[in-house]
Amino acid sequence: MNIDLKLNNVKYGPMTPAARREAAKVALREQILDASRRLFAAHGFAQVTMRRIAQDIGYSATTIYLHFPDKISLMQELCTRDFRTLQQGFLAALAVTDPVERIRALGLAYVRFAASHPHHYRLMFMTSLQDEEAAEFKRETPIAHGDPSQDAYALLVAQVAAAQEAKALRATEGDPHRTAQALWAGLHGVIALHLDKGNDPWVPWRPLGEQAGNMIDLLLRGLAPGKG
């Protein structure tokens, strides 16, 4: 029997009331998350209340609490999503075989994430929590600390250690954390200046990608075997 499956011509009926309610619930949750990310990044976690988030999107605070019990749970959801997005961006870099070029590719992926998701980056790397809040956040986070498949810092340390073991990078007193933190600090400095001062006409700023590439080159050349 010859069956002609013209899927593109299939017409689905209207959404059921239950489906519409679920779609509206999901859409509102995304709206809450987007507003929270932007407000936390702009004003700091401590300065933003659930009421302020609700006002930003035109709802009551009670509505926000139906989706998130408190700010910590909101921050948890945001950071879990955003760190997983960052980790996805590293996948192509991990396919690079040369250990030093793999670190370069990871760095460039990190910069691309910051350029494409500036509010995400500010929240993840430029927003501080109070001590008590930070402790609760660390206890509850679903990101597995120290697992390179989930923890971006652990991934960088693992790649630095592999490059040092292959004698492709100079070992900094045998501690890959020292080297990883120097690499991270260099790139973060370039990104933070771009995000905070990039529109300041006082300095003839060069494009973020160009300056990040320069920073990676300088750092990797300085860490080459036989240097220093």
Characterise the protein shown here.
- The longest helix has 27 residues, at 17-43.
- It contains 11 helices and no strands.
- The protein folds into 2 domains: 15-69, Orthogonal Bundle (Arc Repressor Mutant, subunit A), CATH 1.10.10; 72-228, Tetracycline Repressor, domain 2.
- With 228 residues, it is mostly helical.
Which keywords apply here?
67% helix; disordered N terminus; 2 domains; Tetracycline Repressor, domain 2; 228 residues; Arc Repressor Mutant, subunit A; elongated; mainly alpha; single chain
CATH topology of the largest domain: Tetracycline Repressor, domain 2
- What is the number of independent domains? 2
> What top-tier CATH class of the largest domain fits best?
Mainly Alpha
Main sheet summary: none
Per-chain topology:
Layout: H1 17-43, H2 50-57, H3 61-67, H4 71-89, H5 91-94, H6 99-116, H7 118-125, H8 131-140, H9 152-165, H10 176-197, H11 208-222
Sum this structure up briefly.
67% of the residues lie in helices and 0% in strands. It has helices spanning 17-43, 50-57, 61-67, 71-89, 91-94, 99-116, 118-125, 131-140, 152-165, 176-197, 208-222.
